[in-house]
Design a protein that fits this description.
The chain is α/β, with parallel strands linked by helices. The protein folds into 3 domains: 64 residues, Winged helix-like DNA-binding domain superfamily/Winged helix DNA-binding domain (Arc Repressor Mutant, subunit A, Orthogonal Bundle), CATH 1.10.10; 80 residues, Methionine synthase domain (Methyltransferase, Methionine Synthase (B12-binding Domains), Chain A, domain 1); 138 residues, Cobalamin-binding domain (Rossmann fold, 3-Layer(aba) Sandwich). Helix content is 51%, strand content 14%. Helix 4 runs antiparallel to helix 5, helix 4 packs parallel to helix 6 and helix 7 runs parallel beside helix 8. It is elongated and about 70 Å long.
Length: 305
Amino acid sequence: MARGYPIHDVRRRLIKALGDADAGRGGMSGVELAGALGMSRTTVSKYLRMLAADGTLDRREMGNVTLWSLRPGQESFAFPDDYFRAASAYMECIRNASESGAVQVVRNCVRSGASTTSLVLDVVLPASDAIRDMYETGKIGTAEQNYLGGIVSRSLHEIEVRDPGTRAGLGRGRSVLVIAADSRSEPVSHAACSIYRSDGWAVFGLGDMSAAAGVLFDLDFERLAGKVWSPKDGPLVTVVFSSTAEGLNFFADSIYPASRRSRRMHLLLCGRGLAEPVSGMKSCDYYIDGDVSKVIQISDAISAR
């Protein structure tokens, strides 16, 4: 990797230089870009190859000259100031049902150095909440809700595959099992899984368990957890997201007894989008009222003990 310049800064400067260039020219040469960026030709050449590999740039040979140009949809963000701008751009793609546009916004955010946690919590998850609200207020139907939800899921997948944190330190003393108590809670459970993976957790996402909830009675939860986790791996944090108090109570009653028998198992319940607030929740180690970032913080604190 070229040294001396942050890749996100070089990308931003290249996008500006190429965007300001005359579109009719079909791009700029490495010599021209070196002059525009104030770098040596050798250094610029290294960055150009890197950014071509990640999909930011195209190259075209014109005789003895290589011309570099931007691929469509490239945009640069300056974080942390631009999370609001990124969220607006992403939400506009959701409103227009543009999967390619939404995924491109996410790619641009990742390439601009966005924090995975902030990208998920401040850009993608608010759009998921907006989709749910549009459905519940009758602005969109079931088919459109499912399609837009699929765009959110593919956006989260894009974040995971492009974040090197998802491939580093996997499972080293940090294991989490994530459950959605209902279909409404599945998007936030998926979002939480993305954040955990970016932080190097070993993640076991069960998705929406409402249709298969009986398995937690038929098969003791300790046996279920034992198929994916061992106490020697460190603590196991089980997180349940639910949009109803009934869902929280059901999974608390099913899981908490096993958690109480093992000092290595911890149960976190997160009620998000509840019609009424929940109080006095005792069948868990922690109850969090809708704040996903706090779920992550508590999980980190448990793993650090």
